[in-house]
Amino acid sequence: MAMYVVGHKIPDSDSICGAIALAYLKNQIGEEATATRLGEVSPETQFILDKFGFQAPELKMSYAGENVYIVDHTEKTQAPDDIDEATVVGVVDHHKLGDLTTSTPLECWIRPVGCSNTIIKMMYDFYQVDIPKDIAGIMMCAILSDTVIFKSPTCTTADIKCVEALAEIAGIDDFKELGMDMFRVKSAVQGTPVRELVKRDFKDFDMHGKLVGIGQLEVIDLSVFDDIKSDLEADIAKLKEEGGRHTVLLLLTDIMQEGSQMLIASDDEGLIETAYGLKATDKKLWLDGVLSRKKQVVPPLQDAFA
User: Fold this and answer.
1) Alpha carbon 68 to chain centroid distance?
2) Which CATH superfamily is domain 3-184 in?
3) What superfamily in CATH does domain 194-305 come from?
4) pLDDT tens-place string over residues 105-159
5) Contact at 8 Å (CB) between 213 and 203?
6) Distance CA 41, CA 50 (A)
7) Which sign, positive or negative, has the C-alpha torsion 64, 123, 40, 96?
8) Which of 89, 130, 156, 274 has its CA 20 to 30 A from that of 162?
9) Domain DHHA2: where (predicted)?
10) How far apart are CA 204 and CA 53, in angstroms?
11) Alpha-carbon distance 23 to 52, whole Å?
């Protein structure tokens, strides 16, 4: 039976590019696979797809009765709504283990690296399948995005080596400049609806029975938010109430200054302060050196909720 390869809701570049790259690999080794997505692509992801000549994968929201290979997460809150009615045949991920469960054995490729596409590169090497030039390009860009051009504390030697190898295959001489082009696209926020910005890179987490949403906007200069920060604060408060969430956090990340301002909407602001050992001012925290949601934001917050 054929499989669908899909990332998480509100897909980022790793999720979209990973689904495309993994579906190609599976087809090359005789396992019929189709890349799909669970939401609209971000401006950065569209830039990457256009750069290397790809169309976005098919938008598919229902997977009941289907075989599904999950990319870039293991969280039910981020999976298709009907994932319990599907058969999960595999997972490739670089996050903490979530709460997805299966009734049958599955293939798992989970590594503590900066990007799922780094692991997919390892899979290509394992199966000895050549990576096409265009697929190498999108995989490289996904790794540069997730590792913030190697600045993120999640970045490993494996990520760097994979980018270097993929850049050679893709024929990209200056991959760091291409990475900066991607972040310039991310930084173009003027004129974008506030809700679209809040949900651009947004994930829900079940933290000990409490639903917590965390969004992140990575830019090269936080001044791009000066005129809209109050609107962002108002919108995360609305999003919290609309979704019945305990907390919604929005990270405004400056990749050049290497830190994040956290905007807070929470039923218990003191719990957020406890998590990071800092006192909030006007529902805001400055987190120096914080670039990674999965490594620097989620773990202390989960500990605080426990």
Assistant:
1) 19
2) inorganic pyrophosphatase (n-terminal core) (3.90.1640.10)
3) DHHA2 domain (3.10.310.20)
4) 999 999 999 999 999 999 999 999 999 999 999 999 999 999 999 999 999 999 9
5) yes
6) 12
7) positive
8) 89
9) 179-305
10) 31
11) 17
